[in-house]
């Protein structure tokens, strides 16, 4: 089977693909809005700590399970199980992750569709189709259905081509584009009035908020979502890494890119909010906190762009293209989880499996679109606040308690001779065994 499986052709290819999965709406929208809603820099600080000390070890657990198994999540977890009970447990965790990825995609596609519609709007204005532009950015059933379908179509088109020609090729094209757009936007915003005030709000922490339980829960949730944990995605991406590669550094590099891009996105969004304020837009809600959530992206920022004249049209186009690109490199990873399972365990040909699963998830999205007020929040909460932490925690338990320590070590040794003498090996096994499951569990129960 392994001969017909895909594999990333280079280290760089893997890093961009995994960073592509990690960097998404979670970084560019979620992180800055959570920061805005949680007292600015205090949130940034806690987020950085949790990302490196809890999310990175859990991320490593998923990567190593996948590379060892060289297969989809269910099969990979089964390979490290020692008896039939553990194999049932493996199925529950692996399949649970796959379902979770599908659920996330079903709502993520809708939001990504909105981003695309906002990217189309400035174009319609330039060519004089104002009525179309107005339609495209107003909430309607038809608009939502149209754009979620276009977005799913793009996701399916990439995944149909498999690992090298689909995921890797497109990540190599889209990720550099994303970084260039992001940096140019930051450069421009910094020249505008109000930006320095925003920078202060973003970078000067209010230490009294650092231990606020709500802030901790949000920051951990955000870190898990951002690294795409607890959904089988990193198991499957890990399974496409060659045994010659050093997993420990690869994982660290991806985490670093993910965290850095979230940080950069904050450098764009928070100053942009204060620039908007300087030009008369309200950025504080009635309770005195910064506007966050959809209000920020779909009203404060467009108001800012409107006030910028012709530069605003260009800026708005670039910003929403950035959002759409980030969403696309993430959505392909969500689709790969279920697709690889059906291809490998049920013998369905890849193109057919991709199309069928894509249609199935699009149908879920349509159901959500028809019940937007109730279902969008429900599915998002179910999959990201319950599914991801629980499954992520169970993956750590697999690595810490079920996998024989020597086998785990020998997996890490391929690509990293001498790992047994490294600081990583002194700390990480205990971390995944005790610290990660305990902390994740604690934060999770606290949030209930
Ligand atoms: N990490 C992505 C983001 O920050 C979201 C994402 C991509 C994801 N793939 C995932 C989340 C798989 C959960 C599971 O937007």
Summarize the structure.
The protein has 18 helices and no strands.
CATH topology type: Hydantoin permease
What distance lies between the first and last C-alpha atoms, to the nearest angstrom? 43 Å
Bound ions, cofactors and other small molecules, one mention each:
tryptophan
Note the beta-strand portion: under 5%
Q: In DSSP terms, counting alpha (H) and pi (I) runs of 4 or more, how many helices?
A: 18
Low-confidence stretches: none
Can you summarize the main beta sheet? none
CATH architecture: Orthogonal Bundle
Rg over CA atoms? 21 Å
- Find the CATH superfamily: Hydantoin permease
Q: How many domains, as an integer?
A: 1
Average of pLDDT = 91
Which structural category fits the helices and strands?
A: mainly alpha
Explain this structure.
The structure is a single chain. With 448 residues, this protein is mostly helical. The chain has a single domain, classed as Orthogonal Bundle (Hydantoin permease). It contains 18 helices and no strands. α2 runs antiparallel to α10. The protein starts with 10 loop residues before the first helix and ends with a helix. Tryptophan binds next to α1, α2, α5, α10 and α14.
List the helices and strands and how they pair.
Elements: H1 11-22, H2 25-37, H3 41-69, H4 73-79, H5 84-126, H6 130-136, H7 141-159, H8 162-190, H9 195-203, H10 213-226, H11 233-239, H12 247-278, H13 294-306, H14 309-346, H15 350-370, H16 372-402, H17 405-413, H18 423-447
């Amino acid at each position: 089977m392994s001969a017909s499986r895909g594999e990333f052709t280079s280290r760089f290819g893997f890093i961009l693909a995994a960073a592509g999965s990690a960097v998404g709406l979670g970084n560019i929208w979620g992180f800055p809005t959570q920061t805005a809603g949680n007292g600015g820099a205090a949130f940034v600080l806690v987020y950085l700590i949790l990302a490196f000390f809890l999310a990175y070890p859990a991320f490593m657990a998923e990567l190593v399970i996948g590379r060892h198994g060289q297969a989809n999540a269910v099969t990979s977890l089964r390979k490290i199980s020692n008896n039939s009970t553990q194999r049932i447990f493996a199925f529950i965790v692996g399949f649970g992750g796959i379902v979770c990825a599908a659920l996330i995609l079903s709502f993520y596609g809708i939001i990504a569709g909105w981003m695309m519609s906002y990217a189309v709007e400035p174009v319609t204005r330039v060519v004089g189709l104002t009525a179309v532009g107005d339609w495209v950015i107003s909430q309607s059933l038809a608009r939502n259905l149209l754009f979620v379908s276009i977005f799913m179509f793009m996701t399916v088109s990439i995944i149909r081509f498999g690992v090298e020609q689909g995921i890797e090729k497109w990540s190599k094209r889209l990720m550099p584009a994303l970084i260039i757009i992001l940096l140019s936007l930051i450069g421009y915003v910094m020249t505008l009035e109000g930006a320095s005030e925003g920078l202060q709000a973003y970078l000067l922490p209010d230490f009294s908020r650092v231990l606020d339980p709500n802030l901790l829960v949000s920051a951990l949730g955000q870190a898990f979502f951002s690294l795409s944990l607890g959904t089988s995605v990193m198991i499957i991406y890990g399974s496409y890494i060659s045994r010659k590669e050093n997993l420990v550094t690869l994982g660290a590099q991806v985490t670093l890119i993910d965290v850095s891009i979230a940080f950069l996105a904050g450098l764009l969004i928070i100053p942009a909010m204060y620039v908007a304020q300087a030009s008369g837009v309200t950025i504080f809600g009635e309770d005195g906190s910064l506007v966050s959530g959809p209000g920020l992206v779909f009203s404060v920022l467009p108001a800012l762009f409107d006030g910028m004249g012709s530069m605003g049209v260009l800026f708005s186009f670039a910003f929403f293209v950035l959002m759409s690109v980030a969403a696309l490199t993430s959505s392909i990873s969500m689709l790969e989880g279920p697709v690889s399972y059906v291809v490998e365990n049920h013998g369905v040909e890849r193109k057919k499996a991709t199309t069928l699963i894509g249609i199935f998830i699009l149908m879920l999205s349509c159901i959500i679109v028809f019940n937007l007020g109730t279902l969008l929040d429900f599915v998002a909460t179910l999959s990201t606040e319950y599914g991801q932490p629980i499954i992520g925690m169970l993956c750590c338990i697999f690595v810490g308690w079920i996998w024989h320590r020597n086998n785990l070590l020998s997996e890490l040794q391929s690509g990293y001779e001498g790992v047994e003498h490294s600081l990583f090996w002194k700390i990480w096994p205990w971390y995944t065994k005790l610290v990660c499951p305990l902390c994740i569990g604690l934060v999770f129960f606290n949030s209930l």
